[in-house]
Amino acid sequence: MSELNKIALNIISKGRGILAADESNGTMTKRLMAVNVNSTPENRLLFRETLFSSMGMKECIGGVILFDETIKQTTSLGKSIPDLISSSGAIPGIKVDTGAKDLANSFEEKVTEGLDGLRERLKKYYELGARFTKWRAVYTISDKYPSKLAIHSNAHVLARYAALVQESRMVPIVEPEVLMDGDHSADLCLSKTSEVIKKCFDELILHKVDLSGIILKPNMILAGNQSKDKISKEEISEKTLECLKNSVPSEVPGVAFLSGGQSEIEATENLNLISKNNNTNFIMTYSYGRALQQSALKIWSKNIKDLEKTQNIFNHRAKMCSLAAKGEWSNELENK
């Protein structure tokens, strides 16, 4: 077992998943403003520190993805944020892309940037305590998208990123997200997501990336959010597993799903059925942002000094996600 494979398994094993706390300052400002809290570095730190020091971290969270600002911050107790995360048994990670930009010659699509200077940034993040990284590519579905150009461009960039990360002794999370925006059917989502993931692995293999030392972060197979083609939770599970079985090489240790616009309960319930029906060798777990944090954020905003209430809400959500990763979640436990 390689060192990278050990790190990957530590992050996603035993029902533990990933807390995606890597919102940019712009995104975090929108979220805080929506609950009437000023977006200052101090407030952004306070909310995240509240989550990172909760009991739910120890049992349910194997890794935390951070933003550049956060990984350099120091907690109220004088510990660095990576040290606080490590003290709970979780592994600190870092988002390293610089965002999705318009794709030349296909301006309605995006390609993610951030390769310039990445090798040097990775060295610094390793010194700060990061042991895994994240890079997100986004794809839209319509009658003509995603185009071959977008599929190829993002796969190539994801592979170059992953190779540099492994060179720096860290585990890359490879996140090709096919967005649920639109009126497309679940079958079209299945077809396009499969095409996207297969191309990513073609490029990862071409770039000699060790597939046992990565984590795949895909979308679940869902109908578009404006689609009339509503499908059952069982069908979501079946189509998602079909996609992964046919698209992902067996060396990959696991899959940490993004929530992608689903509500907290939807993301939990869908993961639970996928895990329960899992007929692959892949570990199935979560890498959720809003679907782990949204309820906690609402409670926290009412009194940002009442840490216990916020932590109780986060602990419950993390526990539900952890149960779902093991296929053990139920409505009864959710509402206890």
What do these coordinates show?
The protein has 336 residues and is of the alpha/beta class. An eight-stranded parallel β-sheet has the order 8-7-6-3-2-1-10-9. A two-stranded antiparallel sheet has the order 4-5. The chain has 14 helices and ten strands. The radius of gyration is 19 Å and the shape is globular. The chain has helices at residues 3-12, 25-34, 41-52, 56-60, 68-71, 81-87, 118-128, 148-167, 186-206, 233-247, 264-276, 290-302, 307-325, 331-334; strands at 17-21, 61-66, 91-95, 100-103, 106-112, 132-139, 171-178, 215-216, 254-257, 283-288. Helix 9 runs parallel beside helix 10 (233-247) and helix 11 packs parallel to helix 13. The chain has a single domain, classed as TIM Barrel, CATH 3.20.20.70.
Number of domains: 1
* CATH top level label: Alpha Beta
Per the principal axes of the C-alpha atoms, what is the gross shape? globular
Mean pLDDT: 96
| SSE arrangement, N to C | HEHHHEHHEEEHEHEHEHEHEHHH
For the biggest sheet, the summary is: 8 strands, parallel
Strand content: 15-25%
Strands across the major sheet, in which order?
A: 8-7-6-3-2-1-10-9
Keyword list:
336 residues; alpha/beta; TIM Barrel; two-stranded antiparallel sheet; 14 helices; 10 strands; 49% helix
Secondary structure: elements and pairs:
Layout: H1 3-12, E1 17-21, H2 25-34, H3 41-52, H4 56-60, E2 61-66, H5 68-71, H6 81-87, E3 91-95, E4 100-103, E5 106-112, H7 118-128, E6 132-139, H8 148-167, E7 171-178, H9 186-206, E8 215-216, H10 233-247, E9 254-257, H11 264-276, E10 283-288, H12 290-302, H13 307-325, H14 331-334
Parallel strand pairs: 1-2, 1-10, 2-3, 3-6, 6-7, 7-8, 9-10
Antiparallel strand pairs: 4-5
